[in-house]
Write a structure and sequence with these properties.
CATH architecture: Sandwich
Number of helices: 1
Number of strands: 8
CATH topology: Lipoxygenase-1
Shape: rod-shaped
Radius of gyration: 28 Å
CATH class: Mainly Beta
Length: about 140
């Protein structure tokens, strides 16, 4: 009789364990990491060619929309967006909008990313020494 009771206890314990592990819901882990993107652009034209409306800056904001700004083609410009999540596609475009032969740019573009309010880290850069009318830079947060 003891063998029968032991067998029955083992069957019940095994059934309980199988039911326990199959009925438990697995919790999905949601990534709560927030990122901030810093766009940096400098038209780097000469002082003689500086125009207050010589550079069009196009970037992707935290909502994924494209935003345009007309700025001086001389001097350092910085734009911060966020918070954004993994998979965000940061895009920065610099366009020379001066009239033909009115001004030139040797653009420098940079994209930095900060994770959870940490320090900004350079993720992509274009630093040209040639005159350009259009430059584009992008980075996808992974």
């Amino acid at each position: 009789m003891n063998r029968r009771k032991l067998f029955l206890v083992n069957v019940l314990a095994t059934t309980f364990l199988v039911m326990f592990f199959t009925m438990c819901k697995k919790e999905t882990v949601v990534d709560q990491t927030e990122y901030y993107v810093k766009y940096v652009i400098d038209g780097r034209s000469s002082i003689q060619q500086s125009k207050t409306d010589g550079l069009k800056v196009t970037l992707t904001n935290e909502n994924g929309a494209t935003v345009e700004y007309i700025r001086s083609n001389r001097g350092f410009l910085e734009f911060n967006v966020g918070p954004v999540k993994k998979g965000f596609s940061a895009k920065l475009i610099g366009t020379n909008v001066c009239c033909f032969s009115c001004c030139y740019i040797k653009p420098m573009l940079q994209i930095f990313v900060s994770e959870n309010n940490g320090p900004f880290v350079l993720k992509n850069e274009i630093n040209t020494t040639e005159y350009k009318d259009l430059v584009q830079l992008d980075h996808t947060i992974q």
